[in-house]
């Protein structure tokens, strides 16, 4: 069996959700043995890596004996256009003969008649919330005809039951050709001892405060960061004036001090800018608490587990997700987590996180307050979150993907 895999999404060198999917799935998939017990080396993988400008790839799995990297330098926009509208050039012009072509994202491709196609659909957020996307992105979604690609695919992999339901309801895809395969999270995400020196280094590197609420992900409208900022402002306003001391008559000289845990609380927004991020930055710049809101920019991959471990709570109020890596990563690090009660997030977090209405800032503010003040609730969330996160691992994901290939062949 010879399988082609489209890895063009790696060309920019970024690490958003789809890139994470490819970079975590491939190392496990390429070394797996067939379900029949035959050796992995009997499966040939040809990786299609095309872009006019692209980063150089340097991963151990590229050196496997059954893996061939097939590079070309055609501008992808031109290739997409000709593939979509002229059905040319066929992918075998780049890869040679293949039995199956696997697309981790619905990038257009033209296949020969004897080649079957498997596509992963991570979500249909662009159908539910087109206003969250830039004009250029809307045009790209229009020109790539995702509905047509879904209809023509021999098999579709969906990250969640939520995405499968959307494919059936919106695109009218036959549910029998959709397999839900949950994604995994890296074993790097785990609780770290508080005296670990790496925590201090990461705190210093990104200038992180002692106490903070964390959001980590792309900075774009779909992630609902304006609601998070509103909730943070409500929290700060309500507890703005600290109580310096409380004294009781009858106890001579007795003076107690009550510290306000919200006085020094900060909001940390970590991640890179996506499309239409300007309104989010304007919201922060116009906030009376703008000095308490910190943007870290890009987080190095090796620092991510420590970033989560430093947070007092993790909040992910996204309007729509096909899966949602960050909440599970936070839960795997033992961080109390709050997410929206929408799309696939309830599937991912189970009972290991608090779920809130993504349109209600008061509800989110109250949830944050409870997580920070209620010790019993925190411990319960940490325990359940760790248990839930263990259900998701990339080895399981890779094996199920290979099973799909094997049955399709």
Structural class: alpha/beta
Question: Under the CATH scheme, which architecture of the largest domain would be assigned?
Answer: 3-Layer(aba) Sandwich
- According to CATH, what is the class of the largest domain? Alpha Beta
Report mean pLDDT, rounded to a whole number: 91
Approximately how much helix is present in the residues? Answer: 25-40%
CATH homology group of the largest domain: Glycogen Phosphorylase B
Write down the overall geometry.
Answer: globular
Question: How does this model look, in words?
Answer:
38% of the residues lie in helices and 16% in strands. It is α/β, with parallel strands linked by helices and 409 residues long. It folds into 2 domains: 2-184 and 394-408, Glycogen Phosphorylase B (Rossmann fold), CATH 3.40.50.2000; 197-389, Rossmann fold (3-Layer(aba) Sandwich). Helix 1 links the parallel strand 1 (2-6) and strand 2. Helix 1 packs across helix 16, helix 8 (197-205) packs across helix 11 (304-310) and helix 12 crosses helix 15. The longest helix has 15 residues, at 375-389. The termini are close together.
Topology:
Elements: E1 2-6, H1 17-29, E2 44-50, E3 67-72, H2 76-86, H3 92-95, E4 100-103, E5 116-121, H4 125-128, H5 135-144, H6 146-152, E6 155-158, H7 161-171, E7 178-180, H8 197-205, E8 212-216, H9 225-238, E9 246-247, E10 255-256, E11 266-270, H10 278-285, E12 293-297, H11 304-310, E13 313-316, H12 325-332, E14 337-340, H13 345-349, E15 354-356, H14 361-373, H15 375-389, H16 394-408
Parallel strand pairs: 1-2, 1-4, 2-3, 4-5, 5-6, 6-7, 8-11, 8-13, 11-12, 13-14, 14-15
Antiparallel strand pairs: 9-10
Helix pairs in contact: 1-16, 8-11, 9-14, 12-15
């Amino acid at each position: 069996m010879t399988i082609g895999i489209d890895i063009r999404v790696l060309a920019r060198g970024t690490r958003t959700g789809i890139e994470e999917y490819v970079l975590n799935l491939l190392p496990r998939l390429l070394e797996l043995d067939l379900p029949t017990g035959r050796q992995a080396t009997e499966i040939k993988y040809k990786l299609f890596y095309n872009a006019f400008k692209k980063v150089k790839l340097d991963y151990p799995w590229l050196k496997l004996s059954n893996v061939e990297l097939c590079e070309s330098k055609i501008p992808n926009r031109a290739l997409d256009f000709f593939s979509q509208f002229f059905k040319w050039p066929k992918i075998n012009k780049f890869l040679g003969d293949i039995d199956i072509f696997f697309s981790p994202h619905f990038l257009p491709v033209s296949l020969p008649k004897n080649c079957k196609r498997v596509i992963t659909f991570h979500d249909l957020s662009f159908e539910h919330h087109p206003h969250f996307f830039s004009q250029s992105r809307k045009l790209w979604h229009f020109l790539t005809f995702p509905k047509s690609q879904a209809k023509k695919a021999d098999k579709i992999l969906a990250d969640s039951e939520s995405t499968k339901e959307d494919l059936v309801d919106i695109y009218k895809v036959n549910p029998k050709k959709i397999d839900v395969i949950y994604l995994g999270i890296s074993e790097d995400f785990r609780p770290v001892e508080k005296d670990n020196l790496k925590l201090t280094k990461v705190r210093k590197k990104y200038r992180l405060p002692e106490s903070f609420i964390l959001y980590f992900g792309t900075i774009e409208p779909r992630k609902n960061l304006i609601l998070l900022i509103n909730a943070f402002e409500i929290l700060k306003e309500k507890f703005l004036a600290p109580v310096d001391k409380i004294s009781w008559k009858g106890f001579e000289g007795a003076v107690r001090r009550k510290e306000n845990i919200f006085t020094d609380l900060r909001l940390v927004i970590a991640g890179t800018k996506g499309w239409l991020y300007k309104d989010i930055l304007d919201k922060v710049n116009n906030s009376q608490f703008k000095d308490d809101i910190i943007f870290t920019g890009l987080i190095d991959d090796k620092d991510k587990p420590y970033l989560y471990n430093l947070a007092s709570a993790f909040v992910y109020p996204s309007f729509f997700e096909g899966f949602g890596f960050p909440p599970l990563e936070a839960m795997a690090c033992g961080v109390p987590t709050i997410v929206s009660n929408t799309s696939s997030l309830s599937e991912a977090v189970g009972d290991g996180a608090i779920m809130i209405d993504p349109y209600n800032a008061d509800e989110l503010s109250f949830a944050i307050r409870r997580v920070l003040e209620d010790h019993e609730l925190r411990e319960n969330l940490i325990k359940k979150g760790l248990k839930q996160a263990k259900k998701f691992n990339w080895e399981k994901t890779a094996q199920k993907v290979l099973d799909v290939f094997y049955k399709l062949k």
